[in-house]
UniProtKB/TrEMBL annotation:
UniProt-listed PROSITE patterns: SH3B
Pfam families on file: SH3_3
Chain segments annotated as coiled-coil in the UniProt record: none
Name the UniProt record assigns to this protein: SH3 domain-containing protein
Residues annotated as domain SH3b: 14-73
Source domain of life: Bacteria
Length: 73
């Protein structure tokens, strides 16, 4: 068991509202070098629409975006 260190955003189901644990970028692809299409401030919420590797897929302003899962809870 991973205990309390489990990555809750990765385990969350699609449609779950997640909260940014710190300021983070929303990227066009599940890649830290991809274009930044938006950002969240710590405490902002966003709805998870899927998962790609270590990235949470979200919908942002009608676009599909990706946030590194460890930045969400």
């Amino acid at each position: 068991s991973l205990g309390t260190e489990a990555n809750t955003s990765a385990a969350a189901g699609e449609g779950t509202e997640l909260t940014a644990s710190e300021n983070c970028n929303i990227r066009a692809a599940a890649d830290s070098n991809s274009e930044i299409i938006g950002s969240l401030n710590a405490g902002d919420t966003i709805t998870k629409t899927g998962m790609e590797g270590d990235w949470v897929q979200v919908e942002f302003d009608g676009q599909t975006g990706y946030i590194f899962s460890e930045l969400l809870r």
